[in-house]
Amino acid sequence: MKKENYNVIGVMSGTSLDGIDLAHLVFINQDNSWKFEILESETISYSEDWILKLKNAVAFSSVELVELNKKYTQLLGNTITDFISKYQIKNLDAVCSHGHTILHQPKKGITLQIGNLPEIASYCGQNVVCDFRVQDVALGGQGAPLVPIGDKILFSEYDYCLNLGGFSNISFEFEEKRIAFDISPVNTVLNYYANQLGLNYDDKGQISKTGSCNTALLIELNNLDFYKNSFPKSLGFEFVKETILPLIESYMIPTQDKLRTFSEHIAVQIGLALPNKSGTLLITGGGAYNDFVIERIRFHLPEMTIIIPSKKIIEFKEALLFGLLGVLKLRGENNVLSSVTGAQKDHSSGYIYKNSANCD
């Protein structure tokens, strides 16, 4: 008989490099309906050294990536241990960790999330469920987005679930199936230009708002081939480095104008991505705090009711949903939908690493 109550920690590190998100979670299954509670939660910022490593890792050699993976797994394990100790968390069923994406080229059968080595279980002293993307790519899928099954299970009251992180991704029901895909880069680009102004990010989009939208650049961005592709589709930092930034840099315009133009691009693509332009749209992720981007989304979707949830859900929804993916894996139930990723079949993805101290 399966357990109906789970006590887990969800762990997520996004491409925007805000830090490591950790959330202590309780899941309860009542009459085949899942309820959740986010208890303690925290984002642990990366050191400047780690930010530099993670930014540059896309160009690392295979030998350098192996070493980075080892060191990052230890960093992640130690961070989880500190979180457990700080909040005196007891009797965990598992730690459910996404790791940090370095390479994501599903058409080539490549995806790499560092921090998912088996040693993480001994570093944090817990059973760990992790590395959720690799199996999906092996089955011909995009390996992303993975959180839509959680949207379906935990946030089904909303017509659309939009995450604004390093990239934007959307999840919704379409022809009686859950559909999800990446829309465009978001904070991977906005933060890059905020950094050029000596800032970690453009607070509330205040700098973007002062810039002018460059029509020619906006047209070129909106005409990129990726946006012409139908779902399933996903993005990695390679797209930003190889396509987006070179295009923006080809325009000799002020940084404020680059931020303004790309903010408009984000909103335009979100408006185009939704098959129905009315209903309810739940927005989470760090981009939910960018008032200017939200303003532009409202402009392009005037009939949509936009919901900005509680701070915990905005900041820790992905950690929450990877916690759920881990629970489903522990139960041997499907946690990845082929309708979302394009894989050969629905499946239960991820690896379970047992902490030897917890083994019978």
Mean pLDDT: 95
* Count of individual beta strands: 12
Strand content: 15-25%
Uncertain residue segments: none
Shape: globular
For the terminal residues, how far apart are their CA atoms?
A: 19 Å
What about the largest sheet? 7 strands, mixed
Classify the helix fraction into a percent range.
25-40%
Can you tell me about this structure?
The strands form 2 sheets. Strands 1, 2, 3, 4, 5, 6 and 12 form a 7-stranded mixed beta sheet that branches. The longest helix is centred in the first third of the chain and has 25 residues. A hairpin with a 2-residue loop joins β8 and β9. The chain has 360 residues and is of the alpha/beta class. It is globular. α10 crosses α11. The model has no long low-confidence stretch (mean pLDDT 95). The protein contains 13 helices and 12 strands.
List keywords for this structure.
360 residues; alpha/beta; seven-stranded mixed β-sheet; five-stranded mixed β-sheet; 13 helices
Q: TL;DR?
A:
This protein has 360 residues and is of the alpha/beta class. It is built from 13 helices and twelve strands. The protein is 39% helix and 24% strand.
Question: Secondary structure elements and their pairing?
Answer:
Elements: E1 5-13, E2 20-30, E3 33-44, H1 48-56, H2 62-86, E4 94-105, E5 110-114, H3 120-124, E6 128-130, H4 134-138, H5 148-154, E7 160-164, E8 167-174, E9 177-185, H6 187-196, H7 206-210, H8 215-222, H9 237-249, H10 255-273, E10 279-284, H11 291-300, E11 304-307, H12 311-330, H13 338-341, E12 351-353
Parallel strand pairs: 1-4, 4-6, 7-10, 10-11
Antiparallel strand pairs: 1-2, 2-3, 4-5, 6-12, 7-8, 8-9
